[in-house]
Automatic annotation (TrEMBL):
<keyword id="KW-0812">Transmembrane</keyword>
<keyword id="KW-0132">Cell division</keyword>
<keyword id="KW-0472">Membrane</keyword>
<keyword id="KW-1003">Cell membrane</keyword>
<dbReference type="Pfam" id="PF02687">
    <property type="entry name" value="FtsX"/>
</dbReference>
<feature type="transmembrane region" description="Helical">
    <location>
        <begin position="20"/>
        <end position="41"/>
    </location>
</feature>
<dbReference type="InterPro" id="IPR004513">
    <property type="entry name" value="FtsX"/>
</dbReference>
<comment type="subunit">
    <text>Forms a membrane-associated complex with FtsE.</text>
</comment>
<dbReference type="InterPro" id="IPR047929">
    <property type="entry name" value="FtsX_actino"/>
</dbReference>
<feature type="transmembrane region" description="Helical">
    <location>
        <begin position="237"/>
        <end position="255"/>
    </location>
</feature>
<keyword id="KW-1133">Transmembrane helix</keyword>
<comment type="similarity">
    <text>Belongs to the ABC-4 integral membrane protein family. FtsX subfamily.</text>
</comment>
<dbReference type="InterPro" id="IPR040690">
    <property type="entry name" value="FtsX_ECD"/>
</dbReference>
<dbReference type="Pfam" id="PF18075">
    <property type="entry name" value="FtsX_ECD"/>
</dbReference>
<comment type="function">
    <text>Part of the ABC transporter FtsEX involved in cellular division.</text>
</comment>
<dbReference type="InterPro" id="IPR003838">
    <property type="entry name" value="ABC3_permease_C"/>
</dbReference>
<keyword id="KW-0131">Cell cycle</keyword>
Amino acid sequence: MRAQFVLSEIGVGLRRNLTMTFAVIVSVALSLALLGGALLAREQVDSMKGYWYDKVQVSIYLCNENDAETDPNCTRGAVTAQQKRQILADLKKLDIVDRVYHETAEQAYKHYQEQFKDSPLADSLTPDQMQESYRVKLKDPTKFEVISTAFSGREGVQEVQDQRNLLENLFRMLNGMNWAALGLMGLMLIVALLLIVNTVRVAAFSRRRETGIMRLVGASSFYIQMPFIAEAAFAGLLGAVGATVLLVVSRYLLIDGGLALAEQMPLINFIGWDALFKVLPLVFVVGVLMPSLAAFFTLRKYLKV
């Protein structure tokens, strides 16, 4: 097979179907950008989960005098010194417990005043209304149920709270957005495939005379199909390049420049450029392979002479 012939046929095919080829490139670029964005978003969510789940704690809130009047878990009154010592001793016996922090009512009041100083409720609260608590850091944050089972309902314990629950709604929303991006990516891929099939069909029909002559002189099916497949692969390659540009520019504008989320949200561990560079090879493979396979299977039907 002469490479010069294949390259010339690619040029001819692209010029004859310039508008449809451009539509294929744009569709492939958008679908691949959505694919890469969805993969990066999933990695970002996993990174955030690993970062925050490692820092969350289990809070064991103890009963105070006010809870004894209003909370059914504290009907026997405020927690006693003996009960606090027993709870602390039992916590330290558990292998899953890494550290235990004790927060007094006065410390809880101080932290509340610092965090919610602008709230109208801040001035109405007094230290005796705040709850004393044990903050437990687990070696494995998923073992919350062990702590909950062991200490919920004990005398002096008002509530056992897992801070992971505060993050679940956020991660659930992010995962939902990720699935929506994947769904849109799938729709764009279908559109791109339909455009590729139609482009190949038009190209095969417009060159049916050349194809017939090549058949008569004994050219193999693969030799005849190769220019069409190469055209589709080249369009997919250009789409992958466009998707790469979109991903690189979007990552820079969102995290480093423009919005500068890395500076405005320092508590979030954003993924680095290395994560993007890991995704790009997959973008190029899909960008070249998908149009090539679509062209190959389309030509099996529409290139019979």
